[in-house]
Amino acid sequence: MESRPPSREERVREDRKELRTLQEENESLIEKLLQVERELNTQLKSGLTRANRFRDFAMYRNTYPPFRNPPAAHAPPTPPFSASCGAQPSGTFTNQPPSFSPLKPAAQKIIMPPGTENNYQVTRVQEELVNWLRGLEIDERSTALIASEAYTKNDLIDFVTRDELLNIGVGGGSSCRIMRAIGEIRERQRRHPVFLSPNRSRDDSLDDYHSSSADDMYTVAAETPSST
Q1: Which has the minimum average pLDDT: 15-19, 20-24, 70-74, 208-212?
Q2: Is the full-model pTM beyond 0.90?
Q3: Where do Pro residues bias regions lie (predicted)?
């Protein structure tokens, strides 16, 4: 007995059933792919975070002076200079002046580690620079970075550019305020040039420029003949 061929409606039902099965399998595969993508993104973010931490630690270790120049094993470590110079571990004080060990200038810029921006030390020449930067409301981190490069206030006014400030790590807003103040000082110097005598350098003066009224008074006094 021969089996009759499937009718058109039966073929349509079979095709629809197979199509539905394929569609469900595709949806299941898409859901698995999305799950795998989410897991990969999580692992990638975790790997990038770990790599950034290792990079920051390596930069800090390679540029910060205590790690770059370790003390000799046979020599005791030299205590840093502080306001309590001459203090002994027992709490007594001596009249001996503090000793300084010469340090080679760093070839690389110093990366200030987090939390140590307020612990930097400046020389007497740099005190004017630090006070001037604080007057401009420059953050302590940028001030520490500038001081670590051994700049003075006159160096900033005469030679330093904004690109150099950005290259050592000074923030964009801080560099803008610094360069704006430098531009104003340079403009005043251009309008009122200062001619210092050979016996007096610019570093000896705490002023950015001499007032024109003082110069006029000096000129009048110099030109007035003394009475006999």
Answers
A1: 208-212
A2: no
A3: 68-80
Q: How far apart are CA 109 and CA 123, in angstroms?
A: 18
Instruction: Give the residue ranges of DSSP H helices in the chain.
Output: 8-63, 65-68, 124-135, 140-148, 153-158, 162-167, 172-191, 212-223
Is 149 within 8 Å of 120 (Cβ atoms)? Answer: no
> Integer distance in angstroms from the first to the last C-alpha of the chain?
154
- Which are the contacts of 212, defined by CB distance < 8 A and separation ≥ 6? 192
Please indicate whether residue 201 or residue 190 has the higher confidence score (pLDDT): 190
Domain ranges of the chain: 12-65, 117-223
State the residue for tokens 């550019």. Answer: 161
Contacts of 111 (CB under 8 A, 6+ apart): 59, 60, 63, 64, 169
Name residues whose C-beta falls within 8 Å of residue 129's C-beta, 6 or more positions apart in sequence.
Answer: 122, 146, 147, 151, 152, 153, 156
Q: What whole-number distance in Å separates Cα of residue 220 and Cα of residue 212?
A: 12
User: What is the tens place of the pLDDT at every residue in 8-44?
Assistant: 888 888 888 899 999 999 999 999 999 999 999 999 9
CATH number of 117-223: 1.10.150.50
- Quote the percentage of the chain above a pLDDT of 90: 18
